[in-house]
């Protein structure tokens, strides 16, 4: 019998701007830098909630003053996953941010690790409530979209090659809703 130990499960925690700040921004009205009525008072604008960045291939995140390039809007139509869920891979986008704007009003799980060399011990898991959205920082490791119900997400990110690094986890890690779900 080997001394191999199964990784501890990741437990979802409520998504908040403060807890998610090292990985990106929460996109919700409470995060607005400014808010004010527009369009003859028929619309309320929540302004400057998150910034999108996209860099030419070969340019580093440290060169934030360079011109952004190639941002696109896409629709991701999510099929629901069930918890517990076996996490098997992670990805990152080294040339741009990636925003997921929740138009389906569904809860979704977010699994992240800090930019740089991947560190499984630094992984965190968040539960986004219906109506919450996110914007990943450049280079933040994350799992692909894990919607807990059917829904559409508008995704704003860099279009083109060279902006998605993927890696398989050495072994699956279970994502669970609470510590009670993770007991073996």
Give an overview in words.
It comes from Chromatocurvus halotolerans. Homodimer. The chain contains 1 helix and 15 strands, in the order ββαβββββββββββββ. The longest helix is centred in the first third of the chain and has 4 residues, at 17-20. With 184 residues, it is an all-beta fold. It starts with 9 loop residues before the first strand and ends in an 8-residue tail after the last strand. A hairpin with a 4-residue loop joins β4 (34-38) and β5 (43-47). The radius of gyration is 17 Å and the shape is globular. The strands form 4 sheets. Strands 2, 9, 10, 12 and 13 form a 5-stranded mixed beta sheet that branches. The chain has a 5-stranded antiparallel beta sheet with strand order 3-11-8-14-6, with no helix packed on it. It has a 3-stranded mixed beta sheet with strand order 1-15-7, with no helix packed on it. The mean pLDDT is 88. It has a single domain, classed as Jelly Rolls.
């Amino acid at each position: 019998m080997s001394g191999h130990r199964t990784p501890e499960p990741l437990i979802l925690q409520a998504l908040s701007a403060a807890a998610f700040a090292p990985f990106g921004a929460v996109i919700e009205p409470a995060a607005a830098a400014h808010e004010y009525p527009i369009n003859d008072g028929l619309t309320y604008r929540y302004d400057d909630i998150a910034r999108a960045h996209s860099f030419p291939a070969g340019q580093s995140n440290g060169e934030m003053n360079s011109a952004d390039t190639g941002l696109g809007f896409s629709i991701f139509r999510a099929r629901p996953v069930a918890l517990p869920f076996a996490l098997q891979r992670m990805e990152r986008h080294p040339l741009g941010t990636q925003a997921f704007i929740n138009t389906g009003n569904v809860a979704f799980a977010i699994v992240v690790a800090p930019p740089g060399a991947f560190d499984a011990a630094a992984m965190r898991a968040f539960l986004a409530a219906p109506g919450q959205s996110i914007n990943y920082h450049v280079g933040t490791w994350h799992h692909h979209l894990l919607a807990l119900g059917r829904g559409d997400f508008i995704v704003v990110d860099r279009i083109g090659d060279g902006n998605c690094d993927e890696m398989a986890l050495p072994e699956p890690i279970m994502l669970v809703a609470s510590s009670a779900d993770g007991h073996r």
